[in-house]
């Protein structure tokens, strides 16, 4: 409900805070090149991403023709090595994100990141783009924590915040994000500047959809 004050915002990373598709494409294309596959288009990668690095590699291998995923283990290991060195390749924050974060912090709203990107690279990207200490909590994909749309990671952030689910706005750009937010009981907002279309966000249960980051302030 517009006008209801909330105490925290949890953000997705890729396609929400940062335009990172070129870093993912570069690293995955280099990986696929080793097996004679690709390159793939930016538009294809917008649908390959969103469900963690392992699923990204499964989808690129299948698109290349390895439908039985015979090269998965080797390709996944290679991708992690390449991406670790190139996770900031042409990555930039979306227009309006810095202003949004500054405003939220000025309003004493807690801010966190929940990403299916590997944790080490999630921290690297966030701290490079926004500086250390900007976010109250940063959480990428970790072993023994189920990836989104499981709410497990979201609940861990909620516990660190010391808040109830009703206190939180969750912002993301994919069906996975909308399902994550709904599974956690958050007010869930879809970002149209990211990797997916309005239809996907609507069909995935978004409570609201916005076209510019500063519109999020209506819900905090």
* Secondary-structure element string: EEHHHHEHEHEHEHEHE
In percent terms, what proportion of residues is strand?
Answer: 15-25%
Rg calc: 17 Å
Largest sheet: 6 strands, parallel
Shape: globular
Number of helices: 9
Distance between the first and last residues' Cα: 10 Å
Going by helix content, strand content and strand pairing, the class is alpha/beta
What is the number of beta strands? 8
Biggest sheet, strands in spatial order?
5-4-1-6-7-8
Overall helicity: 40-55%
**Average pLDDT taken over every residue:** 96
Low-confidence stretches: none
Question: Can you describe what's shown?
Answer:
- The protein is α/β, with parallel strands linked by helices and 220 residues long.
- It is 43% helix and 16% strand.
- The chain has nine helices and eight strands.
- The strands form two sheets. The protein has a six-stranded parallel beta sheet, with helices on both faces.
- Helix 6 links the parallel strand 4 and strand 5.
- Helix 3 crosses helix 4.
- The longest helix is centred in the middle third of the chain and has 15 residues.
- The chain is globular and about 55 Å long.
- The mean pLDDT is 96.
Compile the SSE list and pairings.
Elements: E1 8-11, E2 18-19, H1 21-33, H2 42-48, H3 53-64, H4 72-86, E3 92-93, H5 97-106, E4 110-118, H6 119-130, E5 137-141, H7 152-161, E6 168-172, H8 175-184, E7 187-191, H9 198-203, E8 208-210
Parallel strand pairs: 1-4, 1-6, 4-5, 6-7, 7-8
Antiparallel strand pairs: 2-3
Descriptors for this entry?
220 residues; alpha/beta; two-stranded antiparallel ribbon; 9 helices; 43% helix; globular
């Amino acid at each position: 409900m517009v006008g209801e004050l909330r105490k925290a915002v949890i953000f997705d990373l890729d396609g929400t805070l940062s335009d990172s598709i070129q870093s993912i494409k570069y690293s995955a294309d280099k990986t696929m090149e080793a097996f004679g596959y690709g390159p793939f288009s930016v538009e294809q990668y917008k649908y390959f991403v969103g469900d963690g690095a392992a699923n990204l590699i499964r989808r690129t291998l299948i698109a290349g023709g390895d439908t039985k995923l015979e090269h998965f283990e080797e390709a996944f290991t290679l991708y992690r090595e390449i991406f670790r060195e190139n996770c900031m390749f042409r990555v930039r924050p979306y227009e309006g994100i810095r202003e949004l974060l500054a405003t939220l912090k000025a309003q004493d709203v807690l801010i966190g990141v929940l990403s299916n990107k590997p944790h080490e690279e999630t921290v690297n990207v966030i701290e490079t783009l926004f500086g250390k200490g900007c976010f109250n909590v940063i959480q990428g994909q970790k072993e023994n924590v189920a990836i989104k749309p499981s709410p497990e990671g979201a609940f861990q952030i909620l516990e660190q915040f010391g808040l109830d689910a009703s206190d939180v706005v969750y912002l993301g750009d994919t069906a996975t994000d909308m399902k994550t937010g709904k599974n956690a009981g958050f007010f869930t907002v879809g970002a149209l500047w990211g990797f997916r279309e309005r239809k996907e966000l609507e069909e995935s249960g978004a409570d609201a959809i916005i076209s510019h980051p500063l519109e999020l302030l209506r819900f905090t």
